[in-house]
Design goal:
The complex is a heterodimer of chains A (318) and B (288). Chain A has 318 residues and is mostly helical. Chain A contains 14 helices and 2 strands; from the N terminus they run H-H-H-E-E-H-H-H-H-H-H-H-H-H-H-H. Chain A has a two-stranded antiparallel sheet. In chain A, helix 1 crosses helix 14, helix 2 packs across helix 14 and helix 9 packs antiparallel against helix 10. Chain A starts with a helix and ends with a helix. By secondary structure, chain B is an all-alpha fold. Helices cover 76% and strands 0% of the residues of chain B. Classes of the chains: A mainly alpha (318), B mainly alpha (288).
Chain lengths: 318, 288
């Protein structure tokens, strides 16, 4: 009797140990996947890094025939399109979050916020197709000519806004990216705006503050870290987005100041050229680009997560 | 008239600023909805135009001929299924470890952090990783590599939802089961997983929705295939990659097929999202 009990107890212990080891191994797999991705790209790109050295980062060459590759054009394209996207998406997301938490009547909040979250569910290739067939022609017909005529003649800023009305280019890509990241940023903001203690807001209202003053002076400072976290999360998305950008960026390896001209981004260059890369150094350069993208997004996403984690912890102890 | 005192002026200025801000916030919401409607409308109209039964029965055609997306639909289904089959169990186990054995530990926090990064990492980078891991050593593109790349996207989503859902299970439930002398692994498998199941299943459904539209990680893992193929170690077509190829081409009838594919994928993704919500809602109802 007693022995039997002991036996089943040890069996239970063994089972526990095995279960714990198995789940632990799976958890390690998550860490290994990320580490492996970084290492494999550093390794795959080593030929480009050793051949071109630091020049890889500052060279604008992209010459598949003579095997000269530089990362500057795609890196700038990635950063510029992402910044245009943030410039548009951050204020709009703040407006949406404000609308959904303070302004809209109660019956409207759930349907509108679910509809905006639907935007996040649409696959990026659909954004790309829509951008190519619908939005780029619209830009070419109505927006680009206006920008060229009215802003293109400005003394200094004009160089950024003059160019042929192609429809494809940095500006179009930036706008499409903005539409894609708005639901991410606004849902983070909304979620944390809802955590602001009622007491704080109502004290301000009792002193006669307007809704806008409460939002700007009470809600925003209280949730500052979350807002920054949400913005960086959106930025990480915008930097790494591939398909939508590939469709509307125009795939040109020229460095131009104008936002109306076609450009390139890291993700678009890889998507367009990787399977056609016909030499080792070409392929290695593309993988090296991937490594740069990985490092860039890792930093941005790490900042985002640290910010969000800090505010979550604060809320947990409060 | 009212050459009123400064306090009045200030009051009116504050009221005006408030009104402007509120109108602008309404405009922001309208702005977001405007794009949603425009994109869905375009997809619906152009897609319905090209939708016909041949889409589901015929293979992807060469330019100038009529055809469908049967092989691409099948490829997407197969690779997504495989990706879930690989990613979901690993994800649930990893999430279990985080929630049950590493709730407050440094290592747990560290893995949670890395998982969150993986969750939003650019999918094209994961495609490059699988290329280096599978395609390059084996020497050819394959459906398995494609499924593996998609599994890397499934993994962090499932880890996160399992972790969160298991943490929500009341501690009293664990203690009640453990006090009966049940080994911990049995408690986890038979009590905790069952109690957290709605959340975990929802996470898996959302992961499936996410990967069914993913294109970038398939471009140089599964590549593409114009023909019907069942071989897991050969290139395989998928709907998103077919859409990419057809939309970038100069042929009108390929564009029409791309729109039809876009409509099918969008409907599938949106319906899956709805189904996930509905399932979660229903389970909550049943529990109350």
């Amino acid at each position: 009797m007693r022995d039997g009990g002991k036996e089943s107890a040890t069996r239970g212990l063994l089972g526990d140990r095995a279960f714990r080891a198995a789940t632990g191994a799976c958890a390690w797999l998550v860490a290994l996947a990320l580490l492996g991705a970084a290492l494999s790209m550093a390794w795959g790109g080593r030929q480009a890094f050793t051949t071109f050295g630091w020049k890889f980062l500052i060279s604008t060459d992209w010459d598949a025939v003579n095997h000269h590759f530089g990362a500057l054009v795609p890196v700038i394209g990635t950063v510029v399109t992402a910044l245009i996207a943030m410039l548009l998406a951050v204020p709009v997301s703040f407006g949406i979050a404000l609308f959904l938490t303070e302004v809209a009547p109660a019956w409207m909040r759930t349907p509108v916020s679910s509809a905006i979250e639907l935007l996040a569910g649409i696959p990026s290739i659909i954004y790309g197709m829509w951008g190519l067939f619908v939005f780029a022609p619209f830009m070419a017909a109505h927006v680009d000519p206006w920008i060229d005529a009215h802003l293109g003649s400005l003394p200094v800023a004009g160089t950024f806004f003059s160019g042929p009305p192609l429809g494809l280019g940095m500006l179009t890509a930036g706008i499409v990216l903005a539409i894609m990241v708005i639901p991410f940023i606004s849902s983070v903001m909304r979620e944390f705006f809802l955590t602001v203690p009622k007491r704080l807001k109502e004290s301000a209202y009792a002193l006669g503050a307007t809704i806008w003053e409460v939002a700007w002076d009470i809600v925003l400072p209280y949730t500052r870290q979350a807002v920054i976290g949400g913005v960086f999360l959106g930025l990480g998305r915008a930097l790494g987005e591939t398909m939508a950008v590939t469709f509307v960026l125009g795939n040109a390896h020229d460095l131009t100041a104008s936002l109306l001209m076609p450009g390139n981004s890291i993700a678009a260059a890889i998507a367009n050229e990787f399977t056609e890369a016909d030499s080792e150094i070409y392929r290695s350069s593309l993988i090296a680009l991937g490594f740069l993208l990985f490092v860039l997004t890792f930093i941005v996403l790490a900042i985002a997560r640290l910010m969000l984690r800090r505010i979550e912890r604060k809320r947990g102890y409060a | 008239m009212s050459t009123a005192n400064p306090a009045d002026k200030l009051y009116h200025r504050r009221r005006a600023r408030n009104a402007v801000a509120l109108v602008l916030s309404g405009c922001a919401a309208a702005f977001g909805l405007f794009w949603l409607v425009w994109i869905l409308w375009t997809t619906l109209v152009s897609g319905m135009h090209a939708l016909n039964p041949a889409l589901f029965t015929k293979m992807t055609p060469p330019p100038g001929e009529s055809g469908g997306l049967a092989n691409a639909l099948f490829g997407s289904l197969l690779m997504s299924g495989l990706a879930i089959a690989i990613g979901a169990p690993v994800g649930v186990l990893a999430g279990t470890w985080l929630a049950e054995y590493a709730r407050r530990s440094k290592l747990g926090e560290c893995i949670r952090f890395l998982n969150d990064i993986l969750l939003s990492a650019p999918s094209i980078v994961l495609g490059l990783f699988v290329y280096a891991l599978v395609v390059k050593p084996s020497g050819h593109f394959s459906a398995i590599a494609g499924a593996l790349a998609l599994a890397l996207i499934v993994l962090p989503i499932v880890v996160r939802t399992s972790d969160e859902m298991l943490q929500l299970v009341p501690g009293a439930m664990r203690e009640a089961a453990l006090s009966l002398g049940v080994p911990q692994w049995k408690v986890t498998a038979q009590v905790l997983w069952r109690s957290a199941r709605p959340g975990i299943v929802t996470g898996i459904l959302l992961a499936l929705a996410r990967i069914s539209g993913e294109t970038a990680p398939l471009l140089f893992t599964a590549l593409n295939n114009q023909y019907w193929s069942l071989k897991p170690n050969a290139p395989m077509s998928s709907v998103p990659v077919a859409i990419f190829q057809f939309a970038m081409s100069p042929y009108e009838d390929w564009h029409a097929l791309a729109w039809a594919g876009a409509l099918v994928v969008t409907l599938f993704v949106l319906l899956l999202g709805l189904a996930a919500r509905w399932y979660l809602h229903r389970s909550h109802m049943a529990q109350d």
